[in-house]
Amino acid sequence: MALKRPTRRNAPLNLARERLPAKRERAAKIARALARSLPDAWCALEHRNAFELLVATILSAQCTDAMVNQVTPALFRELPTPAALAAADPARVEELVKRTGFFRQKTKAIQATARALAEEHGGVVPEEMERLTTLPGVGRKTANVVRGTAFRLPAIFVDTHVRRLAVRLGLTREDEPDRIEKDLQALLPPREWTRFAHRLIHHGRQVCVARRPRCSECVLAALCPRVGVERSA
């Protein structure tokens, strides 16, 4: 059965006068609407464990998840562990990941991460944010992807889509990912963070696309302050 799209309110949402309790209520409605429209939304990067997800997330920078998913099966078949990846000939790793773009930099990044895992963490990806972000090239976004997806811990990862939609939906006025993460955390209970982030990403790819959002098809239309407002350049 097709989902009924909420009708737009007569008056635009006034974010300047929206207090925190009202914003939390609207965020909860947004989360429920996304849960109804995208109940199974989850990480698009194919992986079998935290190590594979960590490497795939690094490779996904400025590359589509679909392309990463084409590359990683051969990469992990040949180099299945941090120790194996760390010890591999960089030229061979470059060959395996070349299609993801920026392959020389990415080879250095994933081999440095693999080396740190093998030498400092016994080949095991740590769960703690503080330990994850000490790995070479791993920032909060990548760490949160791993924590939320592989370890099923509460985590909001602010990628391009989450950042854009959080601003468009009026859930934050911030521009820095770390500040956006904190704003979103304040609006929803921790148990919803990971699913909410994944659903925002899928919604951003499928409906609320950057260049021409399909507002007429959007289940969040009644909750979005930008519906009917000309998008700024």
Mean pLDDT: 92
As a percent range, the share of helical residues equals 40-55%
The biggest beta sheet is recorded as:
none
Tell me, what is the CATH class of the domain at 17-35 and 155-223?
Mainly Alpha
Question: Can you give a write-up of this model?
Answer:
It is a single chain. By secondary structure, this protein is mainly alpha-helical. Among the domains are: 88 residues, Endonuclease Iii, domain 2 (Orthogonal Bundle); 75 residues, Hypothetical protein, domain 2 (Endonuclease III, domain 1), CATH 1.10.340. Helices cover 54% and strands 0% of the residues. Helix 9 packs across helix 11. The longest helix is centred in the N-terminal third of the chain and has 18 residues. The chain is elongated. The mean pLDDT is 92.
List the keywords.
233 residues; single chain; 11 helices; mainly alpha; Endonuclease Iii, domain 2; Endonuclease III, domain 1
Layout of SSEs?
Elements: H1 20-37, H2 50-59, H3 65-78, H4 82-87, H5 90-97, H6 103-120, H7 129-132, H8 140-150, H9 160-168, H10 177-187, H11 190-206
Overview in brief:
The protein is mostly helical and 233 residues long.
